[in-house]
Amino acid sequence: MNEWLSFEDALLIVVRQRRIILGVFASVVAIATTWILFLTPQYRAAAKILFATDRADISTSSERPTELVRTTEVSENVLNSQLQILQSRDLIEEVLNGLGVPAEEPSADHDSSTFPTKIVNFPGNILRAVYARLKDSDAIEPSSALYWAVLGALKGIEATHIRNTNVIELAFTGPDPRWAREFVNRLATAYVERHARLQQITEAEDFFTRQSQLLHKKLAESEAALRALREKAGTLAGQQSEIHDRLNEFGAELARTKVARAEQEERLAFLERMRASAGKEGNIATPELLALEAKRAELLGHYRPDSERVR
């Protein structure tokens, strides 16, 4: 007996069980068709938000004031943070409160009263009621319509960053196109308003301008007080080393001047003696002799009179 069935044997089995196979196939097709017919059509509304940042360029220099800088260079981390803010519960609650909290999830807003939609949503409503009963959540947030509305909105929201741009795409998928469009528009508006409040461009610029003016005023007062203290206390410790160096320079210059003066006085005295000697003896000093005597007088300014160099 062959371990593997031949093609003829397999075909024979299919022919014999054709009623069961056709019945199963027809049942699957019928269930799928019924489910598709009962499903509520889903519509997608989208909006795009251009993200830019305004920051105050804080200056600590007295020459350059604090100024407001607008830049389109936004890091990936900042954009991801904005995506999280777009999908935050408090922002969605703010939008839903403006629209009015529905009794059911936002994805089943107006079409929830139709019979097919009720049939489709019936298992979810049963599970939700069982969950609330088991958790005994009559007095806590999950039992409120707003909680389930926010939960349904979060399921339909899509917030994505378009690559290589500063644009964020915000979309919502729901059964009612008008409600989805209104929800997306209000969510985008609420996000822009919140972003503006967080930035507080004008207030930040005014604040830093006032702080800069205040610091300039305090700096001028401190400089005036420092000048008054210098006049009152005299030389500061930071100036003592500079004055000491200047005194050393003056002392060295004075010593050099004294040496030059002594040299000139010695030379003058020698010339006076030579003139007196020449007057008495009637001899006239030659230029060579005068040069030698002048050199001797110069050496006397540097060495002792009994030095070998002077002799």
Report what the structure shows.
The structure is a single chain. With 311 residues, the protein is mostly helical. The chain is 65% helix and 10% strand. A three-stranded antiparallel β-sheet has the order 1-5-4. Helix 4 packs across helix 6 (145-156), helix 4 crosses helix 7 (177-199) and helix 9 runs antiparallel to helix 10.
Structural key phrases:
311 residues, mainly alpha, 3 domains, three-stranded antiparallel beta sheet, two-stranded antiparallel sheet, 10 helices, 10% strand
Topology:
Elements: H1 7-16, H2 18-38, E1 43-50, E2 53-57, E3 67-71, H3 76-86, H4 89-99, H5 115-135, H6 145-156, E4 157-161, E5 167-174, H7 177-199, H8 201-233, H9 237-281, H10 287-300
Antiparallel strand pairs: 1-5, 2-3, 4-5
Parts with pLDDT < 50 across at least 5 consecutive residues: 103-113
Helix and strand element order: HHEEEHHHHEEHHHH
The computed structural class is mainly alpha
| Rg over CA atoms | 51 Å
Number of domains: 3
Question: In which order are the strands of the major sheet placed?
Answer: 1-5-4
Shape: elongated
Q: How many E-type strands? A: 5
Largest sheet: 3 strands, antiparallel
Strand content: 5-15%
Mean pLDDT: 73
Count of separate DSSP helical elements = 10
Distance between the termini: 145 Å
How helical, in percent, are the residues? Answer: 55-70%
